[in-house]
TrEMBL record:
This is Polysaccharide deacetylase family protein. The lineage of its organism: Bacteria, Pseudomonadati, Pseudomonadota, Gammaproteobacteria, Pseudomonadales. The keyword rRNA-binding does not apply. It comes from Pseudomonas xantholysinigenes. Keywords: Signal. GO terms for biological process: carbohydrate metabolic process. The keyword DNA-binding does not apply. GO terms for molecular function: hydrolase activity, acting on carbon-nitrogen (but not peptide) bonds. Residues 178-288 form the NodB homology domain.
Length: 372
């Protein structure tokens, strides 16, 4: 009986270790104002920054045992967690400084914060002082950010044994932090789909909106589209990077170098005008010793910091609301959608509609792709 119980407990532990990512969004209807001016974008941005800073500060109160239990893991990599926390604090401080620049136009969520220490202190108490106008937003926002932080800390806890987008492996990698304030890059992964699929609809929609994006394609799927017909019209006006020959982790795959060579050659041959020398690793997983090979292929790893999570149970609107909340939080970044998912286009439509007057900008895909 004891042996059976121990085996059962072990299976539970393994299940916790391998638990799938939690899909979390935030209902933007709980925020009482439309983002119809740059000033109101800043108000909402300051609020989300303070809300996330609050849960980040709370997480630092947990000891290793409590943190391990909260993340559902057997053990955690504390040095990486501390490094990720420090980077998150730096981004929050930078973002809050940017968002404060409109405080003369609207003083909501403006506090005498002149240092990162001030931000820590203010985030712990601001929720009690928001007034009735924002009261319905406070607790749901706190819950969203607590779950979002768990996403990040869980990835940090497993890094670098399991690599992900939570941390860069070298200075040659990109993750959106290099963009200017209020600038965002649209990216899509997992395609192309078969002719007439959501990939076709998405690229057509972007052209009609006079927007561009980087589509990270799989070599085998591009080969299938090429065998069925022309691919140049599909990606006209867009940029195309690579995700490898097939959608699988390139961290442990012995054929990862061949995967990159084949997919790179395919895109360069079929789409020379659209090609940009960027690799988006599936699941964010790549090899720590791959720097030399990447450089030899003139490739850079392109990560993301805003994931739409449109490949799970979230509806198109919930996915878009998640993206918008994280745009307000980080104020810049690389957004990842999946063009093979039919919900990606309605999600993007919602996002564009609700940010049309907010003062944000969309990064040119070719400028980003060719940047040294």
């Amino acid at each position: 009986m004891r042996i059976a119980f121990a085996l059962f407990a072990g299976l539970l532990s393994l299940g916790a270790q391998a638990a799938p990512a939690d899909f979390v969004s935030f209902d933007r209807n709980l925020w009482p104002e439309q983002l119809d001016s740059p000033t109101l974008f800043d108000v909402a941005s300051r609020a989300e920054i303070l809300s996330f800073a609050r849960v980040l500060h709370e997480s630092e109160m947990l000891d290793e045992q409590a943190l391990t239990a909260r993340l559902g893991l057997r053990q955690v990599n504390l040095p990486v967690i501390r490094a990720v926390r420090a980077r998150l604090w730096q981004r929050l401080w930078t973002s809050y400084q940017q968002a404060q620049q409109s405080c003369e136009q609207d003083a909501s969520f403006c506090y005498p914060v002149e240092s990162m220490a001030d931000l820590r202190t203010q985030s712990a108490t601001f929720a009690a002082d928001v007034g009735t106008f924002y009261s319905d937003w406070v607790e749901p926002s706190h819950q969203f950010h607590a779950r979002y932080l768990d996403e990040q800390l869980r990835k940090a806890a497993l890094f670098p044994q399991t690599t992900s987008e939570v941390e860069k492996l070298s200075g040659r990698e990109r993750n959106g932090e290099e963009l200017n304030d209020r600038m965002f890059l649209l990216t899509f992964v997992g395609g192309p789909g078969p002719e007439g699929s959501s990939t076709d609809q998405m690229t057509d929609y972007l052209r009609r909106q006079k927007l561009d994006a980087i589509f990270f394609v799989l070599g085998n799927r591009l080969q299938q589209r090429r065998d069925a017909g022309l691919v140049v019209p599909l990606y006209a006006g867009q940029c195309v990077g690579i995700q490898g020959w097939e959608y699988r982790s390139h961290a442990q795959w012995q054929g990862w170098q061949d995967s990159l060579r084949r997919s790179q050659a395919r895109v360069q041959a079929d789409l020379p005008e659209q090609y940009v020398p960027l690799f988006r690793p599936p699941y964010g997983q790549r090899r720590a010793d791959g720097e030399g090979f990447m450089a030899s292929q003139q490739l850079r790893v392109s990560l993301w910091d805003i994931d739409a999570q449109d490949d799970g149970p979230l509806s198109a609107e919930a996915s878009a609301q998640r993206v918008l909340t994280l745009m307000l939080l980080w104020r810049k970044g690389v957004i990842q959608f999946r063009d093979s998912q039919p919900k990606a286009q309605p999600a993007l439509e919602w996002l564009l509609q609700h940010t049309a007057q907010s003062g944000i900008g969309w990064e040119d895909c070719r400028e980003y792709g060719q940047r040294e």
